[in-house]
Amino acid sequence: MFDPSIDYGLLPSLTGYALRRASILDFSGFGESVGDRGITPLRYSMLELVGANPGLSQVELAEIMGLSRPAATLMIDFWQARECIARHANEADRRSYGIHLTDAGRQALATLQQLVREHDSRLTSSLSGDELRQLRLLLDRLNHPASRRPRTKN
Amino acid sequence: MFDPSIDYGLLPSLTGYALRRASILDFSGFGESVGDRGITPLRYSMLELVGANPGLSQVELAEIMGLSRPAATLMIDFWQARECIARHANEADRRSYGIHLTDAGRQALATLQQLVREHDSRLTSSLSGDELRQLRLLLDRLNHPASRRPRTKN
DNA sequence: CATTTTAGTTATTGTCAATAACAGTTATAA
DNA sequence: TTATAACTGTTATTGACAATAACTAAAATG
Questions:
Q1: Does residue B96 lie within any of the structural domains?
Q2: What are the HTH marR-type domain coordinates in residue numbering (chains A, B) (predicted)?
Q3: Is residue A3 part of a domain?
Q4: Which residues from chain A sit within 8 angstroms of residue B135, using beta carbons?
Q5: pTM for this entry
Q6: Which nucleotides in chain D lie closer than 7 A to a protein CB?
Q7: I need a labelling partner for A119 at 20 to 30 A (CA). Which of A91, B7, B109, B118 fits?
Q8: Which uninterrupted H or E stretch holds B101?
Q9: Model confidence over A50-60: pLDDT tens digits?
């Protein structure tokens, strides 16, 4: 995908470009790593979130994942069709459902977690342990910029 | 977008997840940074590549960018409609076109480069110069894994 | 109660990319 | 030559996805 006879101009100097390429690299191998079945990183992350936070409503789940409510409905449908997620009636408010893993969903998640861990290890296999920790630290700094205003002498 | 009352399970331990979030963060601000007009990172990168490598054919451009030929046609149409890219007839092979920037395209690219540089700086503004260099180094290692097989004692 | 708000679904639309089919041109080879 | 194959670019078709709006049912408000 990288052609040494081509001039990439400004692109190699942009962090955003490097991030995008790494993200695509991760994404492109993901399906194969988890045995496909239409499982994308985003869909996997829904299973992960439902597993760790059982009983969320669909709106809550949508908000956390940055999805619109219709998109959440569809993704929940996806997992429900595979019998991994169930909508539980909420007796206190009959408009909403509590979203839960089924037994099959718990098992699917456990398997997926192992496959995803291995996938992630392959992605970063060219880095040493120290380098990986450093990379994670820096990415987290990008994702959660701590101080809006740089600390002054104070 | 990050809710401290939620358990994200395995996700925070995955480098792929951090990369995806950073990439989305970059992407989501990009349009505004460049004054929109439908300009996405990918479309910008086509302008950059055409500027640095004038005369490429559409198949060459598609290959470099990882696009299908129809997708390249559409994206070239996009820039041609904005009078930034021109298809030059190729006298040696009348099937193909040489893709070039127009004068307006060169000017648009120069403006875009400045805006994109500023956008990229904002993205990484929470890092020091050393940290940024380190991040770029590590990302490049992910994107271009140097040695398939770790060096043994030699 | 009547009205408004909320949860979830369905319908509609638009974007985007992939595949296949197509037209025109060039290369190959009988 | 001439016919066959391969290649460049476009168009048509399809499918995945997400966004918006419209809709139903069920609270909440007053």
A1: yes
A2: 11-144
A3: no
A4: 15, 135, 138-139, 142
A5: 0.88
A6: 7-12, 17-21, 25-28
A7: B7
A8: strand B97-101
A9: 999 999 999 99
